[in-house]
Amino acid sequence: MRISELSTRSGVSTASIKFYAREGLLPAGERTGYNQTDYSEAHLRRLRLIRSLIDVGGLPVAAAARVLASIDAPDHPLEQVLSTAQSALPQPVSPPSPASVRRAEEFVAGRGWRAGPQNPGLRILAGVLDAWAAVGREDLASVLPEYARAADVIAEADLDAVSTAVEGARTGGDRAAAAQTVVVGTVLGDQLLVGLRRIAQENASARRYRPTEGNPS
To answer: What region holds the HTH merR-type domain (predicted)?
Structure first.
């Protein structure tokens, strides 16, 4: 297909398509003549993935490029792809305090979780602890065990969602497809949780504070 058709089918402007190609996010099309390039269905699928990472996942273009490069690198194990995807997600603007980092590490160790010191979640957790302290609400840390239990359930669901693709790659299947599954599950999974949490909060609030609303007497 020509770039105009690719633009129409993907909803992405031709200028953006050319930009993604220049930045290495989108493979170049096939030159078929002077000033003429053809694109395939694979380009359309890749473009939709790019837009999902940027528009829905909220990744900057540079971060999306790193994630896509990890997908494309056949020598990158899937664990490294996961780490790259996690690191690409938005991080605290200011580095957390050493004291909160220690508290985060102690909390993780206390739960028996196996997480390396470079896991970006430690910095995010420490940043939240700092923010609570800044507004005088360190008491909110009491909710951490409940959130951690929920995080365990979510993490297992994450792995269940990608396990088939991952096991397939380890036994000679499509490694790129498995890597893409890991990335989509990680990046879009964060936004999925935000959406579900908002809905669940309204539901929990209604059940707790308006238990008889809508029920016939």
So the answer is: 1-70
